Amino acid sequence: MTALIVVAALLCAGQSLLLADPAGELSHAQANQWLWQADNHARAEQWETSKFTDGASEFQISCQGDASWCWDDPYPGAVTFRQTNGWMAGNVPSRGFANSSDFGEAFDIDKGITVAARVWPIHAHSGGTLCLSAANRSTQDLPGKSTYVWVGWAVPDEVRFYNSQNKCLKRFKASVDYDDRWSVWSFSAKQVGDSVAWDLWIDNVHQAADQPASDGTRHTLVHTEQSASGNTVRFGQRAMMLYPNVTVWDYVAVTNAGVIPGWTGPSTLLRTAPVREPEQPAALTDERKNELLRLAVFKEYMKADALLLDRRHSDAIASCEKALEKYSTADPGLKIVLWLGEIRALTALGKHEKALQLCDELLAKHAGKFDAHHLDVLRSLKVAACDNLGRVDDAASVVDDMIAALDASISALLNPALANPGFEEVADGNDAPGCAWYCRAEAGFRSETSNPHSGSRCLVFTNASGLAPEVYARLYQVVHVLPGTKYELSLWVRGEDVAPGDHLTDWASYQLDFPSGSFAWRKVSTTFTTKDGQGSLNLGVNVVNKCKALAIDDISLRAAGTPAQVKPMLEQNTGLALQMGDAFFHGKKYREAAEAYKEVMKADGASPDYLAKATYQLALCYEKSGLARSARVYMLRVTEKYPGTDAASQARGMLYLWDTYGAPQGAK
């Protein structure tokens, strides 16, 4: 089950919230600040809801899969986010306090924004636990626009800033100790000339203010890299949780009253509110023991990662090997981060044979134990080792495996898994395993081998009850779907004396009516679009009226078009195909490289940069193969079709060299 957490603050963009300030100190300049405290919460059956102190707006938190939000555990009156399995648990990204607030034009970076929170990291790492991104209209005309920044801790004492592409913009040692205790983090952003200045305070201490802005002031970070986040201001847990993380929150405050150094909320509430210390459980559950083991293994990796960042590669290898010995009995899926750290260090030292040997050993013994993300990283490291050793065919074979795995993931998203869609499977006492049966009518169903639409079986319903309120039978299953996505739903039906009214529905997303009377097999279908935030669909057949026999077979549900969630995966697949072409090209296998580049050029929805590079590389393949005229044709195509790309610039340079210093034979 996917570990997805959707968090939305029900605030209208541009809305100003006046809070009841306990000391009566709320000024007009602070009118659009708000405060959330985790111990002001109420529970609901499907949603965990926490109200803001304005008494109306709420957080709504939906938890699915391995990641979870826990109220009052382990600290009374606090909310804990637990994601202890790492990125891609269950082969999908784990999400945290993602996009917890989207204020749009409610904030003005010209005035300055400050976010404060009281948090507690528990023996773990987060790429960005106290976060803010800013890219509203006040910054959209800046050169490069503003940075989508996430800032967070790496226990015990390192702080890191990341952008939206997961690039580490800055890392430094915090000047205060915040490991295993409550601390107040204040994070601010403001426009300074042509850039955005970011500042971080931990317990009122300004952190690493060593970067100068255009006005001469110094800040923790000054940056203007392009942002993909749109016209928004957000804060909260980092969307993609790359590593195990356990984080406790109890208060959060936001203001647009400017950059307030070391701000702790209205009337210093975050600093003065009661602090609740942890309560140690009498005995650890197996689940908690596994959680602590995972975090302990990851903490060992963080030590090695710090050594890698400092280019102390031999020390990193020794650190990983020592930790692997210490946790030799742990599940291989837990230890993968240590193995990957060792391989990275071996590669940096030029020990490619040993790196390749370790990659092969892990892929042979433990591939099934690794999540999709780490398996992909492992394969990428093997490709790099093969490239460095000149093993072109081996590198291409691994890339082909990566493409196949990604194709399978894309197919799974586009074609949701249905239980027994052709009704070929039966079980003792159950002719429709995988489905649930609800019946308030004289109705039933059975598996039949006579006259199926395809295969050897179909499912046949009977009903002796006439149409009446709440008198019906329903066979249903829950299917996982993508939010905001158009789907095509179809199935084959045949009937004998079927009264009108039977249909397929979940009452919220779609209704597909069945024919009435007596009829041979025919296909019925409909299209519908899932709602934003919707992750599941109830696929159910409602038998509501009399029928002698209503047979169904071959249910199909598939995404129509290319959902937004799939586009990055298709782009990644195109990038892998390009990587395969490059591997062949560097190995001087120009025929094979040309075929790979042609596949990239045919890819649906590929970015202009990828298409331009593939076309440019194809021209080089033709040049190296002595097909100079074809080389010139494709060089010109790059400049004409993709004029603004880096590949077009390279192509113009190559054409200039040919024209100035002599083109390859036949290229004129």
Report on the architecture of this protein.
This protein is α+β, with helices and mostly antiparallel strands and 668 residues long. It folds into four domains: 89-264, Sandwich (Jelly Rolls), CATH 2.60.120; 286-389, Tetratricopeptide repeat domain (Serine Threonine Protein Phosphatase 5, Tetratricopeptide repeat, Alpha Horseshoe); 436-559, Galactose-binding domain-like (Jelly Rolls); 589-661, no CATH class. The chain contains twelve helices and 29 strands. The strands form five sheets. Strands 1, 2, 3, 4, 5, 6, 7, 12, 13, 14, 17 and 19 form a twelve-stranded antiparallel sheet that branches. It has a five-stranded antiparallel sheet with strand order 11-10-9-8-18, with no helix packed on it. A five-stranded antiparallel sheet has the order 20-23-28-25-26, with no helix packed on it. It starts with a strand and ends in a 7-residue tail after the last helix.
Keywords, separated by commas or semicolons:
668 residues; alpha+beta; Jelly Rolls; 5-stranded antiparallel sheet; 29% helix
Quick overview of this protein structure:
With 668 residues, the chain is an alpha+beta fold. Helices cover 29% and strands 27% of the residues.
